[in-house]
Design goal:
Blueprint (H helix, E strand, L loop, with lengths): L1 E7 L2 H18 L4 E7 L12 H20 L5 E4 L5 H7 L7 E3 L2 H9 L4 E5 L5 H15 L5 E5 L4 H5 L3 H11 L8 E4 L2 H4 L2 H8 L2 E3 L1 H14 L8
Parallel strand pairs: 1-2, 1-3, 3-4, 5-6, 5-7, 7-8
Helix pairs in contact: 1-10, 2-3, 4-5, 4-10
């Protein structure tokens, strides 16, 4: 039996991102997959009074606690299904007994290889700086220049927090109009990733979501028996 623990910061991502990943993996491991979900919605709160350093420190401490709890289930892989926490995932990776995967790792790598200006689209401020930090680290590691910008459409956020899927979808697609004329769009949240095709049609350019790339990474890890290469 293959076991995955997914750590979420928003209730909606359990039913959208979590179930989508599970469905794709079950095609490869039929009847062999067990998925557990952990949720801490405090990660999703936008606290504008905290300094960036305070936010990073608090997120690291919280995530370390959750990862240790997740390890008690003896999973093959632990997936952190929120880009806001990706910097902490990279810091904690060497501490864990099992592979700790950031949902956006492979997708950021792909965007970096496209050699286009990258527009990060988000409905919450929380994942923006972590995603941009991921691109900066990628550029430094590979010795390349990456040009990035951000489109933040917070009008949709209240509907995400209230799990009003219809209104959230409407607002996200409204915000997608701001993406017309861009070279390459990266969706910073799984909650917008489920609307990738619709956003792409409106934007008229390539739109990248982390989920398909993450699925491929998880497939590889599970096929190797959860043996990860830490970078």
């Amino acid at each position: 039996m293959k076991k995955i623990v997914m750590i979420h910061t928003i209730q909606k991502t359990i039913s959208s991102v979590g179930e989508r990943i599970k469905t794709e993996l079950e095609k490869v491991f039929p009847g062999q997959l067990k998925v557990y979900h952990m949720l801490d919605e405090r990660f999703g709160e936008v606290d504008r009074e905290q300094s960036p350093h305070e936010k990073q420190r608090e997120r690291l401490d919280k995530l370390r606690y959750m990862v240790k709890a997740a390890e008690l289930s003896k999973p093959d892989v632990i997936l952190v299904a929120c880009s806001t926490l990706s910097p902490q995932v990279r810091l904690l990776g060497r501490e864990t007994k099992v592979p700790l995967v950031a949902i956006d790792g492979r997708a950021l790598e792909y965007c970096g290889e496209c050699k286009k200006k990258i527009t990060v689209f988000a409905t919450s401020a929380n994942p923006v700086e972590p995603v941009l930090a991921g691109f900066r680290e990628l550029a430094d590691r590979k010795g390349i220049f990456l040009q990035t910008e951000t489109v933040l459409w917070e009008k949709a956020l209240p509907y995400l927090l209230k799990t009003d899927e219809l209104r959230y979808r409407e607002e996200v697609l409204q915000g997608a109009r701001e993406l017309r004329g861009k070279e390459l769009v990266y969706l910073a949240q799984g909650s917008t990733g489920i609307l990738q095709k619709e956003i792409e049609e409106i934007a008229g350019c390539e739109v990248v979501s982390s989920v398909p790339f993450c699925v491929e990474e998880l497939k590889e890890l599970l096929q190797r028996g959860g043996e990860a290469l830490h970078v």
